[in-house]
Structures are given as structure tokens and as C-alpha cells.
Amino acid sequence: MKSKKSLSLVEEHTEDKNHVGRHLVSDMWNCKNLDDDVEKLENVLLNACHVANATILGVSSHKFEPQGVTVMVLLAESHISLHSWPEYDYVAIDVFTCGHNMNPQAAVDYLEDKLKPTKVETSKIIRGRNYGKDT
Predict the structure, then answer these.
(1) Within the chain, what is the greatest distance between any pair of CA atoms?
(2) Are the C-beta atoms of 63 and 41 separated by less than 8 Å?
């Protein structure tokens, strides 16, 4: 059995031998706790990263006028983003991850708990299916 340190980069960042990563795309409507403050939304997203066991590399955000916020967190495992439309009490969440240690569903669940939407639709996309194989 190989130790984790001896694994190749591809093996280390692969969920299994059939795909490279998972991408959760979540729409949350009627968010009761949606704030239009960029710092507050950054903190909520960073906390979601911690809950999901993600490795944070950097954060970038933008406050739109008259309203709306985009927050992107660059992760060693890939990225997580939040885009808000406060005029609709709506947020769009993306969590793309590779590797074994991060739990992207935990991030989505945390955001749902904090933002208090009345409707959520989350899709899971498998990324890099059958990588390295002739298709």
C-alpha cells in the first residue's frame, strides 16, 4: 500500500478511478438571512469552507451597486463561490472539489442553514469522468 506522500498528483486529487472531482451547483431562493454586506458573506462562505474541511488558499470578492455580492474562495481542492441577488432573496452557490478530504455537501448544508432559504435545488455534476481513458 502506498503512503499518501508517495501518491502521484492525479491519484491524490481523485475521488476514485472513474472521475476527478465533484461539482455541486445549488440555487437557494427566499433566503431569510441574506445580507448584502460583502464582509458578512465572505465570513459565511469561509465558515462553510471550514465545515467542509477545505484548504483555503485565497479569497476574492466584489460588491455590486446598487446591490449584490460575489465571493470566490480558491481552495487547494478547487473553489467555492457565492453570487447574491438580494432583490430576489436568491443566491447561486458552486462548490467544485477534488480529493478525498473535503465534503462539498457539508458546505452546501452549512450555507443553507445560515441563509435560511425556503427553496433549494442542488445538482451534483461528476467532473473528469473516465479521465485518461479513450472515449
Answers:
(1) 56
(2) no
Mean pLDDT of the chain, nearest integer: 86
Q: 25 falls in which pLDDT band (50, 70, 90)?
A: very high
Is 19 catalytic? The answer is no
Can you tell me the distance from the alpha carbon of 11 to that of 4, in angstroms, rounded to the nearest whole number? 9
23 is known as an active-site residue: no
Q: Given 19, 78, 79, 84, which residue is catalytic?
A: 78
The DSSP output letter for 8 is: -
Judge contact between 5 and 72, C-beta under 8 A. Answer: no
Stated pTM of the model: 0.82
Closest CA to 71 of 103, 47, 51, 100: 47
